[in-house]
Write a structure and sequence with these properties.
Layout lengths: L14 H18 L1 H21 L3 E2 L2 E2 H31 L2 H6 L5 H31 L7 H25 L6 H16 L10 H7 L3 H14 L8 H21 L8
Antiparallel strand pairs: 1-2
Length: 263
């Protein structure tokens, strides 16, 4: 991800206008970055295209493409809100972009809010495209419970955004940020069932998956999309996700840095 310079407002303006200005800037920076547009937005779509062509039969009692779609919604959430956000923040911190932003009239809360909403917009668009691809290529149905699915998407994005800010606080260099987040993300995605069923995994791998937040997001999406259940039908998954989100938020508040690390 490039060390882009963000346009910011340099004079006092109403809070709403500042937020809209910064949100627009975040979106422009994201879509102008070919690396971000491919690895964050397009890569889950490419995976769905490839995996949907390979898997056949049924998974979890539904057509394989439908189950893969649910799993890739979870992966897309972690890829966008965790990996993408973490890399972005590390690059901006180490290139002193965050430090310069702190010296402008732009409030820190407005900047953080714009970054998080921009991340949510990207993920929501990605989810919509996944459903359109599924319908067009594999005849997968649209979700019957839109509100419940939307709630799970927002919850997942919030949790993984908090975890993304947390991991960004511990990564020391921009050069190593992509390697670190993918070292965490890809095994978590495989163990959690993003790319297919995990019932044949060895017990010790399934035990590891049982503590990972992505597994519970995928369980929640599976219940809503594959089995037509309401958002509240998976209270355990919701509680685990909320616990991960609160833990990530606490660590992020305590450890996040605006200035480049020395040495």
């Amino acid at each position: 991800m490039s060390a882009e310079a963000l346009p910011v407002t340099t004079h006092r303006a109403p809070a709403g206008r500042l937020f809209v200005h910064q949100l627009r800037s975040e979106q422009l920076v994201f879509w102008r970055s070919r690396e971000a547009a491919f690895f964050i937005f397009l890569f889950p779509l490419l995976l769905f295209l490839l995996l949907g062509s390979v898997y056949s039969g049924k998974i979890y009692g539904v057509p394989a493409a439908q189950a893969l779609l649910a799993g890739l919604i979870g992966y897309g959430c972690a890829n966008t809100a965790f990996a993408g956000l973490a890399i972005q923040l590390v690059v901006r911190r180490e290139n002193a972009i965050l430090k310069r932003l702190r010296a402008t009239p732009l409030p820190a809360s407005t900047y953080v809010g714009a970054v998080l909403v921009s991340t949510l917009i990207v993920f929501v668009l990605q989810t919509i495209v996944l459903f359109l691809m599924g319908k067009g290529l594999y005849s997968t149905p649209f979700p019957a419970r839109w509100a419940s699915l939307a709630a799970s998407v927002v919850l997942g994005a919030a949790v993984f955004a908090a975890l993304g800010v947390t991991i960004a606080s511990f990564i020391r260099s921009a050069e190593g940020s992509s390697a670190v987040v993918n070292f965490i993300l890809l095994p978590m995605a495989f163990l959690s069932g993003s790319f297919g069923p995990t019932r044949h995994y060895p017990p010790f791998l399934r035990a590891i998956a049982d503590v990972l937040p992505l597994k519970y997001l995928i369980d929640l999406v599976n219940a809503i999309y594959l089995h037509d259940r309401a958002f509240w039908s998976k209270p355990e998954a919701i509680l685990v996700l909320v616990a991960w989100g609160i833990g990530g938020l606490v660590v992020a508040v305590l450890k996040f840095r605006w200035e480049p690390r020395e040495g």
